[in-house]
Design a protein that fits this description.
Elements (H helix, E strand, L loop, with lengths): L1 H9 L33 E4 L2 E3 L18 E3 L10 H5 L6 E3 L23 E3 L18 E3 L10 H4 L34 E3 L2 E3 L21 E3 L23 E3 L18 E3 L21 E3 L23 E3 L18 E3 L21 E3 L23 E3 L18 E3 L21 E3 L23 E3 L18 E3 L21 E3 L23 E3 L8 E2 L10 E2 L3
Parallel strand pairs: 2-3, 3-4, 4-5, 5-6, 8-9, 9-10, 10-11, 11-12, 12-13, 13-14, 14-15, 15-16, 16-17, 17-18, 18-19, 19-20, 20-21, 21-22
Antiparallel strand pairs: 1-2, 7-8, 23-24
């Protein structure tokens, strides 16, 4: 941010802000020199060196522009071409703003900017260019060609521009001022954004990064190449190898089938989601031993996609995202220091006694929406996960609670299974559990064994919605603050229903079988913190009486 402000102060002359009405040039203040006599019709010339023709629906490049012009704005018009003879007169131009016109590559002759030897800032974003201008002056400092569908860049487009560094951020209209230098032939890149150590080329049509294209960006820390058409052949072992400061690389939403080679040691985050990767090879990750976050979601990893030891080089890996693949088991020999394993929407059907033994430091484990059954989850599967705080087993085919759950759990999600009973034994020792979701199962009050809730002394949120409960379960945890009972078969709430939950703040009873007088008048006595009672979607509007100690009086439940 401070660098951007410094650049603004150092740049000579006013800097256009593309895409904003009346913002081609900032307010210039009063000038002791009167406006020049020669000014194009309908344009504004507040200073002798400034011509502002912004937003006039011009279809033809204006004539009568003074040769003294240093700053020319023609943004937000209907220009289709730039005549060389008119531009060549303006050899003193330092800023040229052509943002948001209809200029095509055919309307932009190769020599268009050849005579503008003083040009430092050019803005041609949101036009119809398919090829970048071939000869831009050596004096160039900032170039913005975003939103043009540019497919080709010539070596001299941005090469040999010693002053070209980047631009302070302009909302929605960033620039890409860096391209291969000293290269031959055309480079197939499209333009988007470069600010300091942050480089964006996302949402373009890039299929190849030419050899050496990024070799000089040794200070680059973030590189965004997502939503392109990159293939394995479009990258080589040197594409990223010289980016010795790179920490974040986003290659998601491309067409890669393997992990790129030549990843730098400094890389901390690698995003490869939404590609076509079928297998991860350890050799491709040797260089990126400092990787902390590896995102491989929504690829094509099958049963052999992550062979044992494939991630072994990543000793410091913190988070691994694998959701939306075709894995049929938890990958073997994962990095020992792994803290978060996110594996939902795969085909995992078995959880063995030692499947998670290699990752004793896991704090988050997400196995939601797999194919786990109670019979195939070993009772010792979780025994080494002493630091586990969040366990998500939603959307499987479990019929009972797993045994041997880690006693340090804070969150346990078991919604959308086939649970038919709750017993105290699997919940023994879970005295740190704060959130428990059992929604969308087949539980009835008679299936909840006596003492089930006894050990859950810290439980604050309990979700029993969309089960088959006919009344509020008794002896709920004392610490409970939020209780979800919507979508059950509850037809009556007695006066003692919430005696065990004095801290209750929110109660959800919508879409049950309650009628106007189904809730006893004394039901909410002793609940001074109760502020939300949702009874919408029942057969009748329900009358409820909130505790007299709250600021609210009697009211009807519902929307």
């Amino acid at each position: 941010m401070w660098l951007s402000l410094l650049l603004l102060l150092l740049l000579p002359g006013p800097l256009p802000v593309a895409g904003m009405e009346d913002a081609a040039f900032p307010h210039l203040g009063e000038s002791s020199q009167p406006p020049p006599r020669a000014c194009p019709p309908r344009c504004s010339c507040p200073r002798v060196d400034t011509v502002d023709c912004d937003g006039l629906d011009l279809r033809v490049f204006p004539d009568n522009i003074t040769r003294a012009a240093q700053h020319l704005s023609l943004q937000n018009n209907q220009l289709q071409e730039l005549p060389y003879n008119e531009l060549s007169r303006l050899s003193g131009l330092r800023t040229l703003n052509l943002h948001n016109n209809l200029i095509s590559s055919e309307g932009l002759p190769d020599e268009a900017f050849e005579s503008l030897t003083q040009l430092q800032h050019i803005y041609v974003a949101h036009n119809k260019l398919s090829v970048a201008p071939q000869f831009l002056p050596r004096s160039l400092r900032v170039a913005d060609l975003a939103a043009n569908q540019v497919m080709e860049i010539f070596p001299l487009t941005f090469g040999e521009k010693p002053a070209l560094r980047g631009t302070p951020p302009v909302p929605s209209f960033p620039s890409f001022p860096i391209a291969p230098q000293n290269s031959s032939g055309r480079s197939y890149l499209s333009l988007n954004h470069f600010i300091g150590n942050h480089f964006e080329l996302k949402n373009n049509l890039i299929s190849k990064v030419p050899r050496g294209a990024l070799s000089r960006q040794t200070q680059l820390r973030e590189l965004y190449l997502q939503h392109n058409q990159l293939t394995d052949s479009g990258l080589d072992a040197t594409t990223f190898s010289k980016l010795h400061s790179l920490e974040y690389l986003d290659l998601s939403h491309n067409q890669l089938t393997t992990v790129p080679a030549g990843l730098p040691r400094t890389l901390a985050i690698l995003h490869l989601g939404r590609n076509r990767i079928r297998q991860v090879e350890a050799a491709r990750l040797h260089g990126a031993r400092g990787l902390r976050y590896l995102l491989l979601q929504h690829n094509q990893l099958g049963s052999s996609g992550l062979p044992a030891g494939a991630l072994r080089p990543l000793r410091g890996l913190h988070t691994l995202h694998l959701y939306g693949n075709g894995l049929d088991r938890v990958p073997l020999a994962l990095p020992r220091r792994l803290c978060a394993l996110v594996l939902p929407h795969n085909h995992v059907a078995t959880l063995g006694a030692r499947d998670l033994a290699a990752t004793p430091g896991l704090m988050e484990l997400n196995l939601a929406y797999n194919r786990l059954t109670s019979a195939r989850v070993h009772h010792r599967a979780f025994r080494r996960l002493r630091t586990l705080r969040s366990l998500d087993l939603a959307g499987n085919q479990l019929t009972r609670l797993p045994m041997g759950l880690p006693t340090g759990l804070h969150t346990l999600r078991l919604q959308r299974n086939q649970l038919r009973m709750l017993e105290p034994e699997p919940l023994t020792g879970l005295d740190q559990l704060k959130e428990l979701s059992l929604a969308h199962n087949r539980l009835r009050v008679g299936d909840i064994g006596p003492g089930t809730w006894h050990e859950l002394q810290a439980l604050q949120m309990l979700d029993l919605s969309h089960n088959e409960l006919s009344f509020v379960p008794p002896d709920l945890p004392e610490a409970l603050e939020e209780l979800h009972l919507e979508g059950n078969r509850i037809g009556h709430v007695g006066p003692e229903a919430f005696l065990s939950t004095p801290r209750l703040r929110a109660l959800f009873l919508r879409a049950n079988r309650l009628h106007m007088t189904s809730i006893a008048a004394e039901a909410f006595l002793g609940l001074p913190n109760l502020g939300v009672v949702d009874t919408a979607g029942n057969p009748e509007q329900v009358l409820i009486q909130l505790p007299p100690t709250t600021p609210r009086g009697p009211r009807a439940g519902g929307p």
